[in-house]
Design goal:
Helix 7 crosses helix 8. The chain is of the alpha+beta class. The chain has a three-stranded antiparallel beta sheet. Strands 4-6-5 form a three-stranded antiparallel beta sheet. The model has no long low-confidence stretch (mean pLDDT 86). The chain is built from eight helices and six strands; from the N terminus they run H-H-H-H-H-E-E-E-H-E-H-H-E-E. The chain is elongated and about 85 Å long.
Length: 179
């Protein structure tokens, strides 16, 4: 999109430079096109081009990429389509830029995501308890209610986590660290 803005400016202000100095590869590189515009246009013209670039960047920020895939009950599965959402419409990606994008796990359905093992969940609970103890221990003694508030859980949950952790103990509502 930026390359198109630069190319249009060169067509408008210096068509001879566009025809003689710019290769097809350069037409596809916004960095190269910016260099060419810097060489071929006057200061006043470059300022107008920069306004066009700002508008193009704003439009790019508002676009999102989508991959549409699906299965129809009585028909064969159709090929996935890559498209841009440019409010208020979806436009097919004709450049092929989106074809190589790898989807992240955030797009998977909940039943397709890899679940954490029991050991991994236990390790996370232990690390969270240690972090909470360190944060709450800055002012001095640490209570069960302090940890519950910090972790966003109930006091009963904190008590069971402290019991599960081998380096902590509870004595009259106060949590301490074993030596």
């Amino acid at each position: 999109m930026l390359c198109e803005v630069y190319e249009a400016a060169l067509k408008q202000y210096n068509i001879d430079y566009l025809d003689t100095e710019i290769s097809q590869d350069d037409l596809c590189s916004s960095a190269k096109m910016k260099e060419h515009v810097g060489r071929a246009l006057k200061q006043k013209e470059r300022l107008q081009v920069e306004e066009g670039v700002k508008n193009a960047l704003e439009q790019l920020r508002n676009k999102t990429a989508w991959r549409v895939d699906g299965t129809l009950r009585e028909f064969p599965k159709f090929e996935a389509r890559d498209m841009w959402f440019d409010y208020p419409r979806h436009v097919l990606d004709t450049t092929g830029v989106l074809k190589d994008i790898k989807l992240d796990d955030g797009n998977k359905a909940p039943w397709q995501k890899k679940k954490k093992s029991t050991a991994e969940r236990k390790m996370e609970r232990m690390q969270a308890l240690e972090t909470a103890y360190s944060a709450c221990g800055i002012d001095g003694e640490v209570t069960v209610s302090d940890l519950a508030e910090y972790l966003g859980t109930s006091e009963k949950t904190v008590r069971s986590r402290v019991k599960e952790h081998k380096n902590f103990y509870i004595d009259e509502g106060k949590v301490g660290k074993k030596l």
